[in-house]
Amino acid sequence: MSTQPFGFNCHLRYVKSIGKLHERMAALNPAVQVVMVDDNPPPKEDQTVYIQDFASRYPQTLIVARVKHDHDAGYHTPPVNDPEKRKYIASPTDFLNKWGDLGRGNMSLYALNEPLASEELTDAEVTRLIEWCQEVIEQAIGRGISVTLPNFGMGQPALNAALNEWDTRFDPLLKLLSKHRHNVFAGLHEYGADEPYHWGRLMFMLARCKTLNIPAPKVIVTEFGVDATPGTRNGYKARNWSGDFYMRQLAGVYKRVYMPLVDQGILKGTCLFAYGNSGGWQSFDVEEDQPFFDTLTYVRASGSMKPTKPIPPILPPPAPVPPPAETPAPVDPLLVFGSPEWRAKLATTLRTLADLLDAA
User: How much helix, strand and coil, in percent to the nearest 5, is found in the chain?
Assistant: First the structure.
């Protein structure tokens, strides 16, 4: 059974039914899946073993292993009030020493999460970000570790003045990702649906690669779905979308935007945020939304993630049939006139009246 590009961003330790997750993984067979555990505050146990166990169950799937940390958006930034004056919160060496094993086998280590990359960044801050990524990439390749970075947030990085390519300040990063595309993945986050160029914003990256005349990096959309801008958490449930409607919207996005990039070998896959809720993400979590998975099953049956025929409608279950009403017994019209004795007297009176009319 071949893999397909639609996977999930799974908050593993918050999944309510691991058995159901494994059942869906076996049916879906995703090419890539983000699996996340916590590190901060320090857990009482090493949760990375859960990612490794998960990866061992699905050797055909690339597991992007994320250890969530309060500072994972800013490992490349200098610590505040640090008497040692360290260059980074987490140096590339320390980062790989601690979690590098999560980039071996069929795993790729998730490095950074939504680092700031807007037009507000100074040139020095952009350079620091790129230097950290470069050191991680070079050390990881030397140690046989796969990494996925930098997992830019929705609407980032900044674009050029013409708004048709990535900001040229990120050219060194693009060249690195292109050069090492067989070992390193470009991680990006793409959400709809309120502003243009979020679903498919990676096209601006591809446009810059074309200008630079370099091969496109291999891309994993490590977060995918719907969100609001700016800032408010607004998943599909907050929009009052049903799971069926949501999955149909995503299928349309795949058909228009992503499957051509999958076919070209540029896009490894997308990871829907979220499966499981690590706190505050109820509006995004699809785990208990069975209609979502019913529609996903129909989508796959209609031709992978690029339907070649219309998605069959999912009809609501029929309403319960009420029991047949009891047939009322025939009603004698004379019953409305009271007792049998009274009706007998009335009948006599009516006959007498009829006789008198005939005699007249």
Answer: 40, 20, 45
